[in-house]
Specification:
358 residues; alpha/beta; TIM Barrel; 10 strands; binds ligand PBG
């Protein structure tokens, strides 16, 4: 456990309470009845420590070629791949709901997936065209672009492979840098490297500076675990079927937490403006430790498998969908997240508006 307190929360708690007892001067029950504050809805609202609003959400969307096209993602009921014109419309809806940013992920035409992932740095690739179209139509929304090669490789890995099948680090970083540059050139606001290669944040930062993109932000997937929760995402971008082997030589081991601190420290030293933890709910301890340690903008990604679990249980009638969505989202904030990447973003924003919370 971290001994360092969260900067904003622990100070008042220490001022008014003994180390592990009730507030000083209280005689305890019956003078103190914890249920008093919980009795009325207005009082529960008044004493609530953590609030959710649409400004807490980043909405990840999947895009595909074509016009007027949508395609359902079978393992993510309710999520669709959108052609660029539909993505522009979706971005407009998100902005109107008060969602500050979207994150774009491409379903690349299988014919364009190669061993060298060259489509990743084609300035006219699907992502770059989508960024330009959304920027032109919905300039007020922030656009986050993933940097990793898995939507572009013929083998589904985030990096280039050696002859023996090893994921190459430095050669991959060179390609990721080119990918980041075409995205920034297209107008992307935030570059989000999700590949977990060593040194990529520094290389991308230096290249952005040199190319005149000093204001382009970097949100580093700092603590990204080798997780089975990404399965439905790989369906959505079409990389699941082609993935050979696993990603454990670059994504983190789920048993580790100190390693997450080292990863985040490196990314911040290399110029990351924001950090992220992924997956979300099973890794709230990591989120808490990173926020406590670094006190920088820290995000959590409620990933595709988490989305699928909620939707499957809701469809079976085993869980109440909307309650579960809001409960999971507030848990991220309570644990220290400044924001959450979630496929539920527009739905959650509407729910909050409907409840008079936003
Ligand atoms: C690409 C990437 C992945 C996700 C985000 N960026 C998949 C992976 O690393 O295999 C997962 C997101 C999700 O599951 O919702 N590197």
């Amino acid at each position: 456990m971290d001994t360092k307190p969260l900067p904003d929360r622990d100070a008042p708690a220490q001022a008014s309470a003994g180390a592990d007892g009730p507030p000083m001067g209280s005689a305890g029950y019956p003078a103190l009845r914890m249920r008093r504050n919980r009795r009325a809805p207005w009082s529960r609202r008044l004493v609530r420590e953590t609030r959710l609003g649409p400004a807490d959400f980043i909405w990840p969307i999947f895009i595909l070629e074509g016009k007027g096209r949508t395609e359902p993602v079978a393992s993510m009921p309710g999520v669709e791949r959108l052609s660029i014109d539909r993505a522009v419309r979706a971005a407009g809806e998100a902005a109107a709901l008060g969602i500050p940013a979207i994150a774009i992920f491409p379903y690349t035409d299988p014919a364009l997936r190669t061993a060298d992932a060259r489509e990743a740095f084609n300035p006219d690739n699907l992502v770059c065209r989508a960024v330009r179209a959304i920027k032109a139509d919905v300039p007020e929304i922030g656009i986050i672009c993933d940097v990793a090669l898995d939507p572009y490789t013929s083998h589904g890995h985030d990096g280039l492979l050696s002859e023996s099948g090893e994921v190459l680090n430095d050669e991959t970083v060179a390609v990721l840098t080119r990918q980041a540059l075409v995205q920034a050139e297209a107008g992307c606001d935030v570059i989000a490297p999700s590949d977990m290669m060593d040194g990529r944040v520094g290389a991308i930062r230096a290249a952005l500076e040199a190319a005149g993109h000093a204001h382009t932000q970097i949100m580093a997937y700092s603590a990204k675990y080798a997780s089975a929760f990404y399965g439905p995402f790989r369906d959505a971008v079409g990389s699941r079927a082609m993935l050979k082997g696993d990603k454990r030589s670059y994504q983190m081991d789920p048993g580790n937490t100190d390693e997450a601190l080292r990863e985040a420290a490196l990314d911040l030293a290399e110029g990351a403006d924001m950090i992220m933890v992924k997956p979300g709910l099973p890794y709230l301890d990591i989120l808490r430790r990173l926020k406590a340690r670094f006190a920088v903008p820290t995000f959590a990604y409620q990933v595709s498998g988490e989305y699928a679990m909620v939707m499957a249980a809701a469809e079976a009638g085993w869980l109440d969908r909307d309650s579960i969505i809001l409960e999971t989202l507030v848990a991220f904030k309570r644990a220290g997240a400044d924001g959450i990447l979630t496929y539920f973003a527009p739905h959650a924003a509407r729910l909050l508006k409907g409840r008079g919370e936003a």
